[in-house]
Amino acid sequence: QVQLVESGGGLVQAGGSLRLSCAASGRTLSTYVMGWLRQAPGKEREFLGSIVWSGGMIYYADSVKGRFTISRDIAKNTVYLQMNSLKPDDTAVYYCAAKRIGTTTYAYWGQGTQVTVSS
Questions:
Q1: Angle 58-67-15 (CA atoms, 0-180°, nearest 5)?
Q2: What pLDDT score was predicted for residue 26?
Q3: pLDDT-based confidence at 55, cuts 50/70/90?
Q4: How far is the C-alpha of 6 from the C-alpha of 117, rounded, in Å?
Q5: Which residue, 11, 37, 53, 76, could crosslink 29 as a Cys pair with Cβ 3.0–4.6 Å?
């Protein structure tokens, strides 16, 4: 089991920045991919990006490339999502998730953190 706890959400004005954190516990993450996803009201869940814990390979969805940055702190077992130039359309609940390398489904999810961007 992997337990994930997000933090860092809140209210920000358009153009502002936020950094979300996702603290992981329960298992070594060396065989996992950590992902960030979001879901806005009335919309489907959207994949934002992911990082391979071991090796650090990062992938971004086109919708956030250049504005969002994923990173990790191995010592803290924490993955981050730095969000810049935020827009009202970025308003959503943001989730971090974990899946084993080579699998397609994120098996472990955090509780989500609300991000609201005001215009």
A1: 155
A2: 86
A3: confident
A4: 18
A5: 53
